[in-house]
Amino acid sequence: MDFIGAYNPDNLRFLLEGFLLTLQTAFTAIVLSFVLGILLGVLRYARIPVVSWIVGLFVELIRNLPLLLLIVFAKLALPEVGIKLGLFWSTVAALTVFEAAMIAEIVRSGLNSVDKGQIEAARSSGLGYTQTLWHIVLPLGLRRMVPPIVSQFISLLKDTSLAVSISLAELMHNAKIISGQNVNFVFPILIAAAVLYFAVNYTLSLLARRMEARQV
């Protein structure tokens, strides 16, 4: 093991560049998957004829596919139908679709957990179905969804490492390149990558626990 050689300025800079791309990929996918996941979850909860069934089928299909398959599909298969995405957007697209399906289930469960009495009270006070959903059910449900959604985002950040399969220059891709320079770099570089992942994920984990504690 050669910690001094592995942690030379060029290697550390290259590793941090990969980590920055990891964070950019994760942040973009988090924003997009959150918006799409909320929409899909609400549509499933609303039980709109045909629409809710189609959304449910889509969610169940995506949830039961490997994320790696979706990443490779976005990069290699979509160009066959005229949709050409770069490495970054191929990864973001796959992560967004996969995580949105997971979040949709969290949203649906959160909305279903809202006390029926509160819904009936809102309807009896003159609010329509959409108004009740928007002003009562969604705000109450979202409070209960925050911890599991944050936990899902932690998984998303870790899942960005799967983009190494299509050579996106994220953290694990760059760590692999540095490790290939010298067999003595493998352990130090993987330790460094682990520390970077841990720092961000543990922070998010603490945030999720704090939010969960507030709701007890």
Automatic annotation (TrEMBL):
UniProt KW Translocase keyword: no
Subcellular location: Cell membrane
GO molecular function annotation: transmembrane transporter activity
Primary subcellular site in the record, as a coarse category: membrane
Alphabetical list of InterPro entries matching this protein: AA_ABC_transptr_permease_3TM, ArtM/GltK/GlnP/TcyL/YhdX-like, MetI-like, MetI-like_sf
Entry's transmembrane regions: 20-43, 50-74, 86-107, 185-208
GO CC entries: ATP-binding cassette (ABC) transporter complex
Keywords: Amino-acid transport, Cell membrane, Membrane, Transmembrane, Transmembrane helix, Transport
Domain spans labelled ABC transmembrane type-1: 19-208
CDD domains assigned to the protein according to its UniProt record, in alphabetical order: TM_PBP2
Topology in membrane: Multi-pass membrane protein
SUPFAM superfamilies per the UniProt record, alphabetical: MetI-like (SSF161098)
Pfam families attached to this UniProt entry: BPD_transp_1
Matches recorded under NCBIfam families: HEQRo_perm_3TM (TIGR01726)
Family: Belongs to the binding-protein-dependent transport system permease family.
UniProt name for this protein: Amino acid ABC transporter permease
Organism, scientific name: Paenibacillus aurantius
